[in-house]
Amino acid sequence: MITDPQVLDFIARTEAAYPPEANGASAADNRRFYDAMCAVFRAPRPPGLPVQDRRIGGVPCRIYGADIPVAVVYVHGGGFVVGGLDSHDDVCAEIADATGLQVVAVDYRLAPEHRWPAQIADVQAVWDALDRPAVIAGDSAGGLLAAALCLSRRGARQPLGQVLVYPGLGGDGSAPSYRENAEAPLLRTEDLAGYHAALHGEGPVDPLAHPLQADSLAGLAPAFVVTADVDPLRDDGRDYVRRLRAEGVAAHWRNEPELPHGYLRARRHSDRARRSFQAILAAIQRFAGPPR
């Protein structure tokens, strides 16, 4: 399914540090593998970019860029089990530098030490304490949290837009991508069950954790959803956009051929990933509007 040599090289380099079995390891071992993999691809921050760590709404955050009237709230991926401020540091820094917007990265609590709804509660706390309009963006698990934030604040202050990158949105597993990409590189369908169990345990699942299964998506922020074609979660993004459009919400779906889950880290090594990242930056800027 993937023939692009740049993408194949990215997959090989990723799996050398983060082998497929890491997804099924203990949380501690999974994080150790994941952090090592992130270090392989982490790029230096743009020179002169202001960065500070502080709490917003009681939640640890990292702030990139100048204090301006519009922000981007970024929610990192990692299956709700791995990742943090350092794992997506370079991505957030590049978003701030390229768009001129201030980026607020949220260090939400991780599972299994903290079950749902701790994660969305942290994102909500940051959102409610933010004193300016903002775009919300997130990749993978962070994409679900971004969509869940929009759902939870329907009828209240919505983001200027939601930018979701290869999100898992609570699909029921019946969509074709779960079968077609069951053994996809970097994320397999079987891995999703393990992350789901870590997040929810044996308890009932909050409907907010499954945006695709919400009764209504009407009234949510406009959306730009980008998916990786070689990813079991691909059709979650497609179906979310279809539902948003059917309920009167402006939404755009962009699917990336030959790219796997997690390809944001390939943006400096793969032409395909770089073009996708540029489209993501453009979407953020469109939602944020002209400089204020």
Let me know the average pLDDT.
Answer: 96
Helix fraction, binned, reads: 25-40%
> What structural class should be given to the helix and strand makeup?
alpha/beta
Weakly predicted, low-confidence segments:
none
Strand content: 15-25%
Strand order of the largest sheet: 1-2-4-3-5-6-7-8
Brief account:
This protein is 38% helix and 17% strand. The chain has helices at 5-17, 27-41, 89-99, 118-129, 141-152, 176-180, 189-200, 234-246, 271-288, and strands spanning 51-56, 59-64, 71-75, 102-106, 134-139, 162-165, 223-230, 251-260.
Describe it.
- The chain is of the alpha/beta class and 292 residues long.
- The protein has one domain (5-288): 3-Layer(aba) Sandwich (Rossmann fold), CATH 3.40.50.1820.
- It is 38% helix and 17% strand.
- The chain contains nine helices and eight strands.
- It has helices at residues 5-17, 27-41, 89-99, 118-129, 141-152, 176-180, 189-200, 234-246, 271-288; strands at 51-56, 59-64, 71-75, 102-106, 134-139, 162-165, 223-230, 251-260.
- The chain has an eight-stranded mixed beta sheet, with helices on both faces.
- Strand 3, helix 3 and strand 4 (102-106) form a beta-alpha-beta unit.
- Helix 1 crosses helix 2 (27-41) and helix 4 packs across helix 5.
- The longest helix is centred in the C-terminal third of the chain and has 18 residues, at 271-288.
- The chain is globular, with a radius of gyration of 17 Å.
- The mean pLDDT is 96.
- InterPro entries: AB_hydrolase_3, AB_hydrolase_fold, GDXG_lipolytic_enzyme.
- Pfam families: Abhydrolase_3 (PF07859).
- Residues 72-264 form the Alpha/beta hydrolase fold-3 domain.
- GO terms for molecular function: hydrolase activity.
- This is Alpha/beta hydrolase fold-3 domain protein.
